[in-house]
């Protein structure tokens, strides 16, 4: 066998990454052995089917990926900070911007949001778990090992380097002969299957497992956003599945889908990619809208203004998200009629989005606003996101887009939408729901410090890119000469990026500080919340609710507090729970082996792994595990303990 | 586990009815998957470059056998579910067995068909048209083959456990899957073969 293929040469930075990965792995293994935590890790986390623990693992993985994607971003900003920088070479820069995009969208924003959905959706609808807890574990491990597969590409064989959109013919074997884009097709495929299963799971959970009395139009806004997001996932992800499969066939088996000869059609890739890719944007944005709606209502002490119009605007956004994909390539020659159509549908999305912005503003109006950390992120989101939206409408005009296309203006635009839209939202949601999961709040003073660093530095980083784009700087350029005049604004952008780093360091330090020093919450409702997740204890017991709540109104917990409507009327009885299982984890490992073998065309291990996957599925089918019961006495004892009473 | 006797066995617990609904949602995703594959095929159908076109390689004979086998197997899986509702374990297993045998024959003919194409020099690598043809038919064929393993596993469980809420639920979901593959085949028959032969 030819071991040269596995090596990556040349860059001292990559050798550094290899050493740090090896050291971190050894450190984790020694740490787990020294503290005798292997059993704990296996029993409590790797085999868990509890939606809360799975959610926490999603969020941990997302934070890890945020670090990785952030380092990529810093390297890019440093490389372009001054003319003729010699920090990265062209190839390394290509790999870095490709993995930055992939990781931030697919392995940071999506899992962070799916993690929050995992933790919160069953609680907000008053359910004891998701509809299919074991499938949920399968989803997580497929996502996790897909992410790992993409991450090892950096040190084994080489990263994908044709941009996160991997346009053909550039991404074909002919023009990208390294294994990088094989990693792309397989890593995304594996985690994509996990995401699709999540979509199915949450649709069933939300439609079939709501607490009695919670009609569709009484659901919290976050639940509505999660439902629509998962509907988009179910219809958009199969397109990605097909696109990636065709890419794999082209690269590994010599088929002719996206080639330049023999009847292949390279534009087919661009169409398939964006038919998935644009709904994908809304998959990360809609739940963010849901999170903001919850936070604004809670910290304005008002019910959400225009609930019905909020729901309908999200439905319209979801439908339109499937009808705008060609605006990503106006300049690729599909003619005026087609461009005109996609121009109009794209601008139409601004209408329901505008409705939402006004509803949030009207919710704030005359509210008793408290400026907590999650609320600060929400308030910053509204104006910054509006800048992103308005520049989006500028880009939507096909004729004008010929000027902006593939410039830094576009880069600035989508960072202005995605960072306040998705990143601020998950940080806000993280601060907001943290006390629910761990039983204590994050420190507000440190949180505000981090917020101001992040919010100001964000604008310092990305606003100059609008101007650079208008000056004619194209995206994905790894260097430029001093005569272009791009130097000063790029330097300013780098300063902003450093500020963002400082903000995130404070955010992480806050988690450490609060874990050590913040007092425990005892009533489970630190923010005076409105929805059902605050009606149970913090941290949440394994069974979520000792008694299944009965819902009569929107904001059920709020009305139960204000109007004294009892939520929990029945008596505590024994509770049925699903048992833990290690099979989803094992399946993830085998999928990883399968993906890795396919990347390097190692057919025999790939076939063995494929057989292994079928065997694990069969053993899961033959399982006759009906779970177990927690007795009523045990539930009562747990409830008392969580409320701080003596048993 | 609460069993609601007023509903058919396969729907009788909350978990069962969630699983059936979940599978319908999954079939929605499968529709999106095959719709994308059909779109790719229809985009590629005239892009046969220097290779053969559809009318040059398609033969109606094997395709009619495949169609006959798959449509009949959809009928027999329906009979299996009917037998299940009446509690006839043996009849149910026989009908599932016949379904799987017909599925196996279908897969066998499809493999022969692929071998014939390859023998005639029409391979996955020849042209955009043939790539899309092989991947569309292959995806359907892979689904049928997976169904054979799945149906086999259900047969073993039926044989060991008899008809209970769990096995009834699995059989019912499997029947949905099988009918779905049948519908996809009708589209393949119409839009690939009939259109290609005209």
Automatic annotation (TrEMBL), chain A:
It comes from the Bacteria. Catalyzes quinol oxidation with the concomitant reduction of oxygen to water. Its cofactor is ferriheme a; Cu cation. PROSITE patterns: COX1, COX1_CUB. It is a multi-pass membrane protein. Gene3D superfamilies: 1.10.287.70, Cytochrome c oxidase-like, subunit I domain. One of its GO terms (biological process) is electron transport coupled proton transport. CDD domains: Ubiquinol_Oxidase_I. PANTHER family: CYTOCHROME BO(3) UBIQUINOL OXIDASE SUBUNIT 1, CYTOCHROME C OXIDASE SUBUNIT 1. Signal peptide: none annotated. Heme A3. Binds a copper B center. InterPro entries: Cyt_c_oxase-like_su1_dom, Cyt_c_oxase-like_su1_sf, Cyt_C_Oxase_1, Cyt_c_Oxase_su1_BS, QoxB. It is an enzyme of class 1 (oxidoreductase). Keywords: Cell membrane, Copper, Electron transport, Heme, Hydrogen ion transport, Ion transport, Iron, Membrane, Metal-binding, Oxidoreductase, Respiratory chain, Translocase, Transmembrane, Transmembrane helix, Transport. Pathway: Energy metabolism; oxidative phosphorylation. This is Quinol oxidase subunit 1. Residues 36-552 form the Cytochrome oxidase subunit I profile domain.
UniProtKB/TrEMBL annotation, chain B:
PANTHER family: CYTOCHROME BO(3) UBIQUINOL OXIDASE SUBUNIT 3, CYTOCHROME C OXIDASE SUBUNIT III. Belongs to the cytochrome c oxidase subunit 3 family. Gene3D superfamilies: Cytochrome c oxidase, subunit III, four-helix bundle (1.20.120.80). Pfam families: COX3. One of its GO terms (molecular function) is oxidoreductase activity. One of its GO terms (biological process) is aerobic electron transport chain. CDD domains: Ubiquinol_oxidase_III (cd02863). It is a multi-pass membrane protein. The chain crosses the membrane at residues 21-43, 63-84, 91-109, 129-159, 171-194. Keywords: Cell membrane, Membrane, Oxidoreductase, Transmembrane, Transmembrane helix. It comes from Paenibacillus monticola. This is Cytochrome o ubiquinol oxidase subunit III.
